[in-house]
Amino acid sequence: MQLTGSEYEDGSLSSWINKERFQGYLQIDGFTLYELGDTGKLVAIAVINDKDPSEECVRLKSLIQTVAKDYRQHFNRDFQFGHMDGSDYINSLIMGEVKVPSVIILNTSNEQYFLPDGPTDSLEELVGFITGVLNGSAQAYGGDGIVQRVKRVAFDARSTILSVFRSSPVLGCFLFGLPLGVISLMCYGICTADSEPDVGDMELMKREGLTDEEEEEEQQRRAAQLEGPENDDVDDEEEEVEAEEDEEEEKAPEQKKTD
């Protein structure tokens, strides 16, 4: 068997074997797409509905098979061709929606993807789109930048929540409603809490910070404060009695004079 290829373009023998270990055209699923990422090739996929194929699906599948076979010398080094049943996996991969049927080219090394600007109803249009991707004139979408990573986290979280609610609405309400309720109660408690401590709490804090001797002195001081008003009342009564006695003594000489 004779191996054809350039060492400069194809690299080592192991690299060439890794690139050529797949057929030129195959049915692609999520696992296969992951394996194709090791080849370093761009993946041109016809997104169709195999379960209920329409005339457009059949025509697009036939077109991409023709490109994979008749243009092998042009594109085989850089492209892997195939078709995928349904658009769910592709939609989750690009965080968007592609219509069925349609063509999409994926760059698995940097998570970019390419969509045709116009229709691809003919062989010439499809070849033109693939050539534009190869020479860099086609618009690239996606990528693995920071913005795309943030979008990926948000998209995955949204997809997870929606899948839980679709499969079990009751479980979804429990899983997401309970934490939200607890957080709401905590926020309400923080917002409505008194900013100033009660007098009783302050007294308790003072007692906890006092030693036994200081606490005894504090009790004596409080007892003295409580006895203070009573002593004041007694002193007032004594003063009133003395004042009455003085008045009587003053009246006594006057009565003697009148007698």
Largest sheet: 6 strands, mixed
- Uncertain segments are none
Derived structural class: alpha/beta
According to CATH, what is the class of one domain?
Alpha Beta
CATH overall fold name of one domain: Glutaredoxin
> How does the overall form come out from the CA principal axes?
rod-shaped
Mean pLDDT rating: 79
Number of strands: 6
Q: So, CATH architecture of one domain? A: 3-Layer(aba) Sandwich
CATH H-level homologous superfamily name of one domain:
Glutaredoxin
* Estimated radius of gyration: 46 Å
Residues in helix, % = 55-70%
* Largest beta sheet: strand ordering: 1-3-2-4-5-6
Distance separating the two termini: 164 Å
**What is the H-and-E element order?**
HHEHEHHEHEEHEHHHH
Number of helix segments?
11
Percent strand: 5-15%
Enzyme class: isomerase
Subcellular location: Membrane
Pfam family, one: Thioredoxin_6
GO molecular function: protein disulfide isomerase activity
Secondary-structure map with pairings?
Layout (H helix, E strand, L loop, with lengths): L6 H4 L2 H8 L4 E3 L2 H7 L5 E7 L6 H16 L1 H4 L3 E7 L2 H7 L7 E6 L4 E3 L8 H13 L4 E3 L3 H22 L1 H24 L6 H11 L2 H47 L1
Helix pairs in contact: 8-9
Membrane topology: Single-pass membrane protein
Protein name: protein disulfide-isomerase
Enzyme class: isomerase
Describe the protein's architecture and organization.
The protein starts with 6 loop residues before the first helix and ends with a helix. It is α/β, with parallel strands linked by helices and 259 residues long. Strands 1-3-2-4-5-6 form a 6-stranded mixed sheet, with helices on both faces. It is built from 11 helices and 6 strands. Strand 4 (102-107) and strand 5 form a beta hairpin. The chain has a domain at 7-143: 3-Layer(aba) Sandwich (Glutaredoxin), CATH 3.40.30. 63% of the residues lie in helices and 11% in strands. 15% of the residues are buried. The chain is rod-shaped and about 145 Å long.
